[in-house]
Amino acid sequence: MHAAPAKPTLYVMKNADEVVSALASYVLHAQKEAVEKKGRFTVALSGGSLPKMLRGLIGVESVDWDKWQVYYADERAVPLDHPDSNHGLCEKELYSKVPIPKENIHPIDTTLLDDLEELSDAYEKALILQFASKDSARFPIFDLILLGMGPDGHTCSLFPGHELLAEEDRWVAYLEDSPKPPPKRITLTYPVINHALRVAFVATGAGKQEMLSKVLDQPELGLPCSRVRPTGGSVCWFVDEDAAALVRYERTEWEV
């Protein structure tokens, strides 16, 4: 019998700084639970504004950086120092400011940028090394996946109406036709995202109002963000009042 998909929990903070603070508490709680249980904390990060929103973890003593294993929810097929690289962005906003061991961070293999199938296969193999022998599940079970929401409701590199929304077998898939540049990318698929123990979305600012309302109030539209419904875990949204202005969806009080 399959577990019912998780219903999103919505946390609304006064402003972006409060979102940063709440997100840091949430990540620390997830880390503590994972490290106590397994001695490691597996995380998948996105790009966009997300790495900057993790600034609440910088300088915090209770972060066990040596226990983190960091992957990417999606990545652009560009060199790691390219302005479009999610890894490059995370390096700039987070890794360069915290004592995380370099070997605990898992970027794409940039020698394979000209062959997206090889690139996505190699990233899938890196995940298999981390997860398969330990969790022996059909899909990896991340402790935490941190996501953003695009202006069209996309998340990772899963775009509205794209064939990858229907991918059911692969852990990592590639696309050459991203509607948002750069066109060539790899991405985690829904089976991986929806096997995570925790998924957290972060959205701030008035520019997110209409789309956030569509994603939470009209899940029947099937927007990519609305399809994130973990079957054995939880999904929550950390947003500010500006982003939540049009949302009718039930709010949950944030408790530290």
Automatic annotation (TrEMBL):
Keywords: Hydrolase. GO terms for molecular function: 6-phosphogluconolactonase activity. It comes from the Eukaryota. Its EC number is 3.1.1.31. SUPFAM superfamilies: NagB/RpiA/CoA transferase-like (SSF100950). Signal peptide: none annotated. It holds the Pfam family Glucosamine_iso. It is an enzyme of class 3 (hydrolase). InterPro entries: 6-phosphogluconolactonase_DevB, 6PGL, Glc/Gal-6P_isomerase, NagB/RpiA_transferase-like. GO terms for biological process: carbohydrate metabolic process; pentose-phosphate shunt. The keyword Hydrolase applies. Pathway: Carbohydrate degradation; pentose phosphate pathway; D-ribulose 5-phosphate from D-glucose 6-phosphate (oxidative stage): step 2/3. The keyword Hydrolase applies. It catalyses: 6-phospho-D-glucono-1,5-lactone + H2O = 6-phospho-D-gluconate + H(+). Residues 15-237 form the Glucosamine/galactosamine-6-phosphate isomerase domain. Hydrolysis of 6-phosphogluconolactone to 6-phosphogluconate. PANTHER family: 6-PHOSPHOGLUCONOLACTONASE. Belongs to the glucosamine/galactosamine-6-phosphate isomerase family. 6-phosphogluconolactonase subfamily. This is 6-phosphogluconolactonase.
